[in-house]
Design a protein that fits this description.
This protein is an alpha/beta fold and 183 residues long. Helices cover 29% and strands 32% of the residues. The protein has helices spanning 26-34, 52-60, 74-87, 126-139, 157-163; strands spanning 40-46, 63-71, 92-97, 109-114, 119-120, 123-124, 140-151, 166-172, 176-182. A seven-stranded mixed sheet has the order 3-2-1-4-7-9-8, sandwiched between helices. The protein has a two-stranded antiparallel sheet with strand order 5-6. Helix 1 (26-34) packs parallel to helix 2 (52-60).
């Protein structure tokens, strides 16, 4: 690229047009700070964007051996691939250009992290996040755990109750809530 945008905090690279392309999203930051110790095995980042949560997961969970990153946007996938290679080279990372609302992952996971999109254009569409929660429930191994961040007003608890044996809230601030669920 002739004039690449400057790197973001932490050395991340994003391209214009991606969600939160000019800064680390506050909700994703809250989720990354809230991830529990001791996560291990194979993880996935659903709706990975440019890979912030995957890199933070790799940094905070040395026993996570691999991360699969999924996003429906091609440029997001390319940015995520580059950020994982540059910022989390120790971890095996696979990037999938895939819409998880219509295409299921083949692999089963020990953990899934996500900051699901909830807008179609300008209108709030909680059904997108609910569909991603269902996709996570289907992709997790028994005992696998989901960690997600959402705007406080979004009603994701019913979807968590329907798809998981246990669920709860880890943390909240003025704008966001960090939810967990176990399959």
């Amino acid at each position: 690229e002739a004039n690449p945008p400057p790197p973001l905090e932490g050395g991340f690279r994003a391209v214009p047009g991606l969600f939160s392309a000019n800064r680390v999203d506050a909700g994703s930051r809250l989720l990354a700070e809230s991830l529990p110790a001791g996560l291990k095995g194979v993880a996935a980042d659903f709706g990975a964007g440019w890979g912030y949560l995957s890199v933070k997961l790799a940094e905070s969970a040395p026993e996570v051996t691999a991360v699969d990153l999924y996003d429906a946007g091609f440029s997001a996938c390319e940015a995520a691939r580059a950020n994982m290679a540059a910022l989390a080279p120790r971890i095996a990372a696979r990037v999938f250009w895939r819409d998880l609302l219509s295409e299921k992952p083949e692999r089963r996971y020990d953990a899934v992290v996500m900051n699901p999109p909830f807008h179609q254009g300008r209108a709030a569409e909680p059904s997108i996040g609910e569909g991603m929660i269902r996709a996570a429930a289907a992709a997790l191994k028994p005992g696998g755990r989901l960690f997600l961040v959402a705007n406080r007003g979004l009603p994701y608890e019913a979807a968590l109750r329907a798809g998981f044996s246990r669920h709860g809230e880890l943390r909240r601030d003025a704008r966001f809530k960090v939810l967990w669920a176990e399959r």
